[in-house]
Structure formats: structure tokens, C-alpha cells
Design brief:
Layout: H1 3-18, E1 23-26, E2 40-43, H2 50-64, H3 69-82, E3 87-100, E4 103-115, E5 122-128, H4 129-142, H5 163-182, H6 184-187, H7 190-209, H8 213-230, H9 239-251, H10 255-268, H11 278-292, H12 297-309, H13 318-323
Antiparallel strand pairs: 1-2, 3-4, 4-5
């Protein structure tokens, strides 16, 4: 290819690229809600006036005009990757048979992966048949219409521990979770999220109340990632877990790590200053900042401002709030 042809091809690719509208991942639309695909893409860029489009085009051409055709191709490839679909995938690769006193049951290992991003973290939990059965009954109470076509593997009088039955249920439960997650209202429901996170959280808070901070922290750090994936649309919901992590790090004398997670919790509460965790978290962050030699004046002013507005009521410490979570 001669130089003129090469330059022409580059300009054509650039002009075509400048007209590409960015897309991002979001929840399925109402019409697609019951389809197996967990997430679909939706257009997020607002319509622009002709003047705005022209300005964007000129800016794009000005910033990439020195690129070769190959470099432009790589650039737009990376742009598409940044807007890739994001969803959760459920796998059940293995099981184990548990014999406890007079009972015997199968535990199903569930691996939860996030796809469509560069995040390679995964969450691993275990549930038994009765856990799935309880979830199904609870969901039917609130989503009977949505659950009309959802099948659940029935109990059998014999053969529950045969390899054939266990393998059938592995596949059935995998499809069951995938289908539930594909329905927006169900995957956002407290009952579905509790099924995937509550047993681990109850164990972690039990360890915290018992002073087993290392074990509690280990579990909390595992579950916080899954909570964030499940509750992307409600970031405030993970504040209690973040604060429990702060408490564990603080009692394990890791003030820097405690402060880091505290900052994350404060960020999520920045427009929720009436949240029950907000003032106790501010008090803890001031103490940590003082210990670490950080500037805490802004935190102190915010705390005094809030306390001046509050009625004289009992305010628990951050640790007192944490130990009260998941108390039966």
C-alpha cells in the first residue's frame, strides 16, 4: 500500500471510530428479565447536539491523529473491553458427604465468578439441599408469578447419596441459581442475597463476639467481595461488613488497615449521614487518624456538627454496633 492509501485508510478508521457510541453493562430490561442471560448491555451516553458531536469528533481526531492504523485498531479494541458485559456465573464443581451424629447430607460447593471484567477473584461457599429448599419456599412467598416456570429438584426416598443423583442435582442447582440471578427482582432481593452470604456472615460475627478477630477478619474479607458483586446498586448495604472489618483490624492492632476500610465505609455514607453507623464510624476514624498522625480536623468538625443536631440519645461505639449484628 502506498503512503496516500495508507493515510486514507487511517483517516477512515479514525472517522468511523469517532462515531462509535459507548455502551456499558447494566441489569436486564423488563422484557428480557426472564431470559437466562444475566446481564445485557444498554446505551448510557445521552444524545448530543450536532455541535457537541462535532466537538467530540474534533477532540478525538486531534488526540489520535498521530496514531497508525494498527494503533487505532488496538485503541478501539481496548475501549470496547472497558465496556464489556459484567455478570455473575455460578459453578458447582464438587460435593462432599457430611455425617454428623445421626444426620447425613450432601454439601454442594458453589463457586461464584464475575465475568466480563479483569477481576479474577472468586467466592466459594457451601450449601446443602435443605438450604436450597428453604430458599425456594421463601422466594415463592414474594415471587410466585416469576417462579412459575422455575423447577426445583424433588426429594427422593432412596438413592440421595448415589453418584448419579448427586451429579443430577449439581447440574440442576447450577441452572437454578443461574435462572434466579437472571431475574432482576429476585437477584436483588434480600432472601436471595442472604442465601449466598448470611451463613458466612453469621459465623464471622460469632467469631467477632468471641474475640476471635483473626478468624472473623478472614471470613469477612472473603464475603465482602461477594456482597459488593451482589449489591452493586446498593453500596450502603455493605457498610456494616466494612465496619466489622475496621473493628477486627483495630483490635488486631492494624490501625493503617482499619483506617483504609473506614475511609471506604465513610465514602459510601457521604450522603447518608443519618445512618446508624455514621457517628460511631466518625469517632473511630478520628481515633485512628490521631494514632496514625493523620489530619483529623475535618472529621472532628463533622462529628461535632452532627452531634449538635442530634437529640440526646444513646450512641453505641462501632464495636458495640458490630457485635449486635446477626444476633439470633
Amino acid at each position: 500500500m502506498d503512503q496516500d492509501s495508507y493515510d486514507t485508510a487511517g483517516r477512515e478508521l479514525l472517522e468511523a471510530g469517532s462515531r462509535i457510541t459507548p455502551f456499558c453493562a447494566t441489569a436486564p430490561s423488563e422484557e428480557k428479565q426472564n431470559q437466562p442471560n444475566a446481564e445485557i448491555s444498554c446505551q448510557v451516553s445521552k444524545e448530543k447536539t450536532g455541535k457537541d458531536v462535532l466537538q467530540d469528533s474534533n477532540t478525538s481526531q486531534g488526540s489520535h491523529s498521530s496514531m497508525t492504523t494498527k494503533e487505532l485498531q488496538e485503541y478501539w479494541k481496548k475501549e470496547k473491553c472497558q465496556c464489556r458485559q459484567v455478570s455473575l456465573v455460578f459453578e458447582i464443581p464438587s460435593t462432599r458427604i457430611v455425617e454428623h451424629h445421626l444426620s447425613k447430607y450432601v454439601m454442594y460447593k458453589i463457586i461464584i465468578l464475575q465475568t466480563g471484567s479483569f477481576d479474577c477473584n472468586k467466592s466459594i461457599i457451601e450449601r446443602r439441599y435443605s438450604d436450597f429448599e428453604k430458599l425456594h419456599r421463601k422466594l415463592l412467598e414474594d415471587f410466585s408469578e416469576e417462579m412459575e416456570d422455575v423447577t426445583f429438584p424433588k426429594k427422593t426416598l432412596t438413592g440421595n447419596f448415589t453418584e448419579e443423583i448427586i451429579n443430577e442435582r449439581k447440574l440442576a442447582f447450577k441452572d437454578y441459581l443461574r435462572l434466579l440471578y437472571s431475574m432482576r427482582y429476585i437477584r436483588r432481593s434480600k432472601k436471595f442475597i442472604d442465601f449466598l452470604t448470611r451463613p458466612e456472615l453469621e459465623e464471622a460475627y460469632g467469631c467477632l463476639r468471641g474475640g476471635q478477630y483473626t478468624k472473623a477478619l478472614e471470613i469477612l474479607l472473603e464475603v465482602i467481595g461477594l456482597q459488593e458483586r451482589l449489591m452493586r446498586g446498593n453500596p450502603v448495604s455493605v457498610v456494616p461488613t466494612l465496619c466489622a472489618i475496621v473493628v477486627c483490624h483495630k483490635d488486631l492492632e492494624n490501625p493503617a488497615s482499619a483506617f483504609e476500610y473506614g475511609e471506604e465505609a465513610l465514602l459510601r455514607l457521604r450522603v447518608h449521614t443519618s445512618h446508624r453507623y455514621y457517628i460511631p464510624l466518625l469517632e473511630t476514624m478520628i481515633a485512628l487518624a490521631y494514632e496514625l498522625g493523620k489530619d483529623f480536623l475535618a472529621l472532628q468538625e463533622k462529628l461535632e456538627e452532627l452531634k449538635a443536631k442530634k437529640h440526646p440519645v444513646k450512641i453505641f461505639t462501632l464495636k458495640e454496633l458490630a457485635v449486635r449484628e446477626y444476633v439470633q
